[in-house]
Amino acid sequence: MSFKYTNYLICSVILTNWKMIHMTKQYMISKNTLIGIAISTFLIGIIIGGIIGYFASPTDGENFDLPEMDSFRMGFMPTSPENVDTVTTNAEELASFLSSKMGIDVEIYPITNGYEDLILAFQNGQIDAAFMDGGPAHFVIEGGWGNVMLAELRSANNQPYYDSVAWVRANSNIDSLSTMLDGSYISSHTSATGTAGMIMPIGTLIDEGYMQTQSDDDTQTLLARYFASSEIGGSYGGALQRVLDGQADVAFVRDTTPTDLFPDRVDELRLLHTFGRVPSHPIVVSSQLAEGWRFRFVNAMLELNMPENVDLLSSLYGAPGLVGANNVHIKDLSDAIRNLPWLEDEILG
């Protein structure tokens, strides 16, 4: 990455934070807090810019080379098979917006086989950027086919992350991770490859020595050694519902699931453990994309933070804004994934 592009990213973050000050009322963020973020980020930008010896501004991107392209190919992942039409419709609106800002046709890359399609598209140079989940993004980055350039903010905390946690019933006998894993209890997960519901907690438990893997393990055999049985809830609510109804003893979900989905039953639950931060949806850009087009894409996407554009962004996955990011955004998750060597086969089917 060139010095010019590095400075551009610094300025983009500064610009993003400044724009978000004007969104205070809509997202319930303290104006003083946002001003502090903007000022601190600005000072960091000045220091780094002084070292490098070059100060960029958004208009400097026009000096980048822009190799001719027939179109810019953008990938969107449906959050579930049931809402694929809605996501596609909203994606078409975003594609039109990006096209007007970037000066090039923006096409939606067709998805028919989940994340496997997106990963293979990056591998084969068939896609330029995509909204992804952290797990699949890890494999794209590990393969050298793309890099994180942006990340969504979460509406619950206005941060680009949330915590993976374990909830038990308030009167549960489970008082430690060791007790939880003694083979007597039933676990509940969002899915077999869910980030907060499986990858982060199980990967962390392995990393911290609470669980031991064997050479022929997969997720099912590993869980069977430490739990009486394991349930798949299909969603955050489904996983936690099993604990509330007494069908399971511990649920691995995101931190805000009780207050988000069961506000009247929060007193029935107890937080057992926090495993780590789960990254919000990263936006991954192909490593084959020319620097000038990367600049134009990131700059156009950051314009979605403007009040007049943010509804278009939130119509996709509910995010109230975007921030500049890099591969560090998914580092904790990547560390957890490396403790589950069979996971790539499970994700790719």
CATH class of the largest domain: Alpha Beta
Largest beta sheet: strand ordering: 2-1-3-10-4-11
* Class inferred from helices and paired strands: alpha/beta
Q: At the fourth CATH level, what is the homologous superfamily of the largest domain? A: Periplasmic binding protein-like II
Helix content estimate? 40-55%
**End-to-end Cα distance:** 34 Å
- Radius of gyration, CA atoms, in whole angstroms: 21 Å
How many separate domains make up the residues?
3
Low-confidence stretches: 1-35, 37-61
Q: How confident overall, as mean pLDDT?
A: 83
CATH topology of the largest domain: D-Maltodextrin-Binding Protein, domain 2
Assigned CATH architecture of the largest domain:
3-Layer(aba) Sandwich
Find the count of extended strands (DSSP E, 2+ residues). Answer: 11
Strand share of the residues?
A: 15-25%
The largest sheet, given as strand count, sense and whether it forms a barrel, is: 6 strands, mixed
H/E order of the elements?
HHHEHEHEHEEHEHHEHEHEEHHEHH
- Globally, the shape reads globular
Continuous helix count: 15
Molecular structure report:
Helices cover about 45% and strands about 15% of the residues. It has helices spanning about 5-20, 25, 30-50, 85-100, 115-125, 135-140, 175-180, 195-205, 220-225, 235-245, 255-260, 290-300, 310-315, 330-340, 345-349, and strands at about 70-75, 105-110, 130, 145-150, 160-170, 185-190, 230, 250-255, 270-280, 280-285, 320-325. It has a six-stranded mixed beta sheet with strand order 2-1-3-10-4-11, with helices on both faces. The protein has a five-stranded mixed beta sheet with strand order 7-6-8-5-9, sandwiched between helices.
